[in-house]
Structures are given as structure tokens and as C-alpha cells.
Design brief:
binds ligand BES, Aminopeptidase, binds manganese (II) ion, Leucine Aminopeptidase, subunit E, domain 1, alpha/beta, binds zinc ion, seven-stranded mixed sheet
Length: 508
């Protein structure tokens, strides 16, 4: 018997279930074919039923089985299906080199793109062979959902291919129950990633600081403990670095604390801290007009932390985790901070603000310090769209990783390789402190252009006590992302899958 799972995507619903390999009955039959080889295993039997000559058909359609290639056959004879899709699976499996998770997600992504372009119907996907493990099929499912994601709530006209009909997909596998369990374990992180994308894509007029905090507060229904600190509480506590950013905006600041206590009672939590600048105009050091609209996504770190907490609650992770997001808006106004201002951060360190556009580190300085003092976490990881310079260095394929702890760094790098959300470690070092020395205060908030991402990280390090700490600069990967097999584009939701995977290392 098949195992039912349901995924929602609006307006079209994606309904998934697993089923045994025998007797698929759907209108659309999908077979995977390895590069340069004829259909194998169960796919070979279905192909044989058509009576078609594979070499001849594939050859005349220039189908080579390359990843992303599709051979679409209408009204195949010998099959119950009215349509047969052969999808390229890429290079033939090599037992020494198992197909990476990201490649499975890509397979799911290209399948989703193809199915959305077809007149809808129920679909049977045949997945057999030793490499189609439950985890691999779960990855394919993740790719399917992520490619199916659209952010078109503000489009008045429907797309031509848009339909409210349900896309029913049965995944025919050797072990339906084990596959359903693997999918159920993977889906919470996918849903968290979708939440992060939704938050990042949302325009800045509809997602202000109050609205963002309200979205986090809704997650209390999942069993998360959500606490929201506002202006007066932050003032009383002394988070003056964070407050200096929000003071130019009509929107009040929020520090949102989300806790998931699924681990041993009393065990020190893992802490994740996100930069949540709902819009970064640059402030008085205003940004140029071109591309400024992208700065609605300057809360990508906070969105990833929120998506992660959603995922952990959904899968009832066996770990104690606290997510903190500093949610502010950086605007120029008569009340805005000025270049030259000196503020005392929560830690007591004084900061000379020399560039009001280097605001993210001011938010993180206080959020990191608060997280460490209040929760005494076992480790802290921050995520931030912190510097344009990281995009210059690494482009959109890797996020920058900075860490004061080698073990933490290597665990994060490893989680990135498994999930495809790759990290590249960047250096820290006291030599960079020179650039953020201030004539008037303990430090200044910008070290200028050279090594811009490193001096930003070196600034954050000043607000870390002895806690193992890592900083992920996701400015190059969180927003303005190129279209890919698993993303139609712009917001990627980077970080949720990576950290969900990372947290598993610490579960009891
Ligand atoms: N939010 C920006 C960084 C950013 C740039 C994110 C592009 C996403 C895409 C950040 O607040 C910023 O403005 N950084 C400055 C730092 C500089 C003033 C030291 C930058 O990168 O130019
Ligand atoms: Mn800025
Ligand atoms: Zn910013």
C-alpha cells in the first residue's frame, strides 16, 4: 500500500505519495534513464511494453540521458499511460561515487518544471535501482517542491500554465514505507526553506519589522516559545547598537527570540542569530538607486533562522535550540544615526559609526552578545546578508564562512556539501583589526573596501566571548539568486537545509 503525504503549494496543490514498483496506473508515466544507456531495471520493462526501439527513438530526438533532458512521447502504445516522459538522470551510477543529494534534488526540480508545463494529470514516477535509496528519493521530493514554489501573490493575471488542479504524484519505489518516512523527515526543512523564501520575497511595505515579528509569533502554534522585545525593552536592556539602526525609521525595532526545547532538559542550547534588516536604504550614507529594491531581502539571515526554527519544531528535533533575530529598518531621516555618532553596545564596547550603511554588524553585535549572555549556548552561528564584498569574492555558489573554532567550521562545511548549500571558509586574524580601529571610540563600524567581508567578521568577533562561533555571510546567495533546477529565482532560502542538517549532529 502506498503512503500518503501531502504538500501544499498555492494555487496548485502538489499531492505526493509513495507506492510499490508494480502496476503504476497514472496518466503520465515518468522513467529515468542514465546517460548513454538504455532504460534499466523497472524502467526497461515499461519501455519494452511500448515496443519502441530505444536507440532509434532516442537518437532521432537527440536524447542522451543527460541531466535535465526530456524525451516526451504522447499516446505510447502498450502502456495505460497517455504520456511517457523519459528524463535524463545524468552519468550512469558508479557505486564508488554515489549520486550526491543535490543531484537528486535537481532531478526533482527538472521534473517539477516539466510537469507544471504539461496539462495536469496524475503522474507515476518510477524510481528503482540501488542508488534510489529512501534518502535519495526524499531529496528528489525536496527538489520537486522547491521548483514548484512560486511567489506570484501580487500578480493580477494568472500565468498560462496556472491551474488550481492538484498535481498528483506517486513515487513508485522498492520500499514505499521507508521512503515515506525519509520524505517525512526531509519535508519540514523544505517547508522552512519555503517560509524563508516567502519572507525574503515579500515587499518591504508589507513586511516591516512588526509584520515580520508577527509572522514569527504565529509559530508558537508549532510548540515554539516565542518572545518579542520591543523598543522600550531594548532601551532598558541597553541594545544601543541595534537601536541606532532603527532610530531613523518610523518602524519600531524588534528582537525576536524563538526557542525549541526538544533536547535534554538543562542542556546548553545551540544558538542561531539572524540579521533582519527589512529594508536597507543605507541610511544617511544612502545607497545608489540602482538595485536598491533588492534591499528588501536584507533580512535573509533572519528569514533563514525563522525557517530553521519552523523546521525544527515541525520535525520535533531532539535538541535545544534558540533562534534570535534582530529586526529593524535602516532609513535616512531627521532621527537617523549620523556618520560620526558613537554608540555604546550592550557589551560595553563603544562604536564609532563612520558609515550608516554598515548597519548589519551593529544589529548583530547586540543580538550576538545578548544571545551569549542570556543563553550561555554551546555554540552560536549567525547568518547575515552582511557585505556586498562576499558576492564579489565568492559569487552565488558559496556563502562565506568565518569561525573561531575549527570543529564548528568543519561541521558546517560538511553539512553544506551534503545539502548543496556550500560554504567556503574565509580567514580571520588580528591583522585586520587595524582597519576597524577608531580614533575616538573602541572600534568603528567600517574598515573600508579592502577585505570588506573579513573586517565585517572581525568586527563581529569583538562581540563574541569564549563561545564557539561561526558567521555565515550570505549576501551573495540569499537573494537575487540565479534560476536553477530547484529555484525559479530570486530568494533561495539558503541556510535552512544546511542548518537543519547541522543540528542533526547534536541531537540526542
Ligand atoms: N545589506 C548590505 C550588504 C548587501 C549587499 C547585501 C548586496 C546583499 C546584497 C550591507 O548592509 C551593506 O550595505 N554593506 C556595505 C558595507 C560597507 C558600507 C562597509 C557594503 O557591502 O557595501
Ligand atoms: Mn547596509
Ligand atoms: Zn544591510
Amino acid at each position: 500500500m502506498g503512503e500518503d503525504l501531502l504538500l501544499l503549494g498555492m494555487p496548485q496543490t502538489l499531492a505526493l505519495r509513495t507506492a510499490p514498483l508494480a502496476d503504476p496506473t497514472a496518466a503520465i508515466l515518468v522513467l529515468y534513464v542514465a546517460e548513454g544507456a538504455p532504460p534499466a531495471g523497472a524502467a526497461a520493462a515499461h519501455w519494452a511494453a511500448t515496443g519502441l526501439d530505444f536507440e532509434r527513438v532516442a537518437g532521432s530526438a537527440a536524447f542522451r540521458g543527460k541531466a535535465g533532458q526530456v524525451l516526451d512521447i504522447a499516446a505510447p502504445s502498450g502502456l495505460a499511460a497517455r504520456r511517457l516522459l523519459l528524463l535524463g538522470a545524468g552519468p550512469a551510477p558508479d557505486p564508488a561515487q554515489p549520486v550526491a543529494g543535490a543531484a537528486w534534488a535537481d532531478r526533482g526540480g527538472s521534473l517539477a518544471a516539466r510537469l507544471m508545463a504539461l496539462t495536469p494529470g496524475d503522474v507515476a514516477v518510477i524510481l528503482d535501482g540501488p542508488e534510489a535509496t529512501p534518502e535519495a528519493v526524499a531529496e528528489l521530493t525536496a527538489g520537486l517542491r522547491l521548483r514548484h514554489y512560486r511567489f506570484d501573490k501580487y500578480k493580477s493575471r494568472k500565468r498560462d500554465d496556472e491551474t488550481a488542479e492538484t498535481l498528483e504524484i506517486a513515487l513508485h519505489v522498492a520500499d514505499p514505507a521507508a521512503t515515506a518516512a525519509a520524505i517525512a523527515a526531509r519535508l519540514p526543512s523544505v517547508e522552512g526553506q519555503v517560509l524563508a523564501r516567502d519572507l525574503i520575497n515579500e515587499p518591504p511595505n508589507t513586511l516591516g519589522t512588526v509584520e515580520f515579528a508577527a509572522r514569527a509569533a504565529e509559530m508558537a502554534s508549532l510548540g515554539l516559545d516565542v518572545e518579542i522585545l520591543g523598543q522600550s525593552e531594548l532601551e532598558a536592556l541597553g541594545l544601543r547598537a541595534l537601536l541606532s539602526v532603527s532610530q531613523g525609521s518610523a518602524r519600531p525595532p524588534r528582537l525576536v527570540i524563538m526557542r525549541w526545547n526538544g533536547g535534554d532538559p538543562g542542556a546548553a542550547p545551540l544558538a542561531f542569530v539572524g540579521k533582519g534588516v527589512v529594508f536597507d536604504s543605507g541610511g544617511i550614507s544612502i545607497k545608489p538607486a540602482a538595485g536598491m529594491e533588492d534591499m528588501k531581502g536584507d533580512m535573509g539571515g533572519a528569514a533563514a533562522v525563522t525557517g530553521l526554527m519552523h523546521a525544527l519544531a515541525r520535525r520535533r528535533a531532539k535538541a535545544n535550540v534558540v533562534g534570535l533575530i534582530g529586526v529593524v529598518e535602516n532609513m535616512p531621516s531627521g532621527t537617523a544615526m549620523r556618520p560620526g555618532d558613537i554608540v555604546r553596545a550592550l557589551s560595553g564596547t563603544t562604536i564609532e559609526i563612520v558609515n550608516t550603511d554598515a548597519e548589519g554588524r551593529l544589529v548583530l553585535a547586540d543580538a550576538l552578545w545578548y544571545a551569549q549572555q542570556r543563553f550561555r549556548p554551546r555554540l552560536v552561528v549567525d547568518l547575515a546578508t552582511l557585505t556586498g564584498a562576499i558576492g564579489v569574492a565568492l559569487g552565488s555558489d558559496h556563502a562565506g564562512l568565518f569561525a573561531n573554532d575549527d570543529e564548528l567550521a568543519s561541521r558546517l562545511v560538511a553539512a553544506g556539501l551534503v545539502t548543496g548549500e556550500k560554504l567556503w571558509r574565509m580567514p580571520l586574524g588580528p591583522a585586520y583589526d587595524k582597519q576597524i580601529e577608531s580614533r575616538f571610540a573602541d572600534i568603528k563600524n567600517s574598515g573600508g573596501r579592502p577585505a570588506g567581508s573579513i573586517t565585517a567578521a572581525q568586527f563581529l568577533l569583538r562581540f563574541i566571548d569564549s563561545t564557539p562561533w561561526a558567521h555565515l555571510d550570505i549576501a551573495g546567495v540569499a537573494l537575487n539568486s540565479p534560476a536553477s533546477e530547484t529555484n525559479a529565482g530570486w530568494a533561495s532560502g539558503f541556510g535552512v537545509a544546511l542548518l537543519d542538517r547541522f543540528v542533526r549532529d547534536y541531537e540526542s
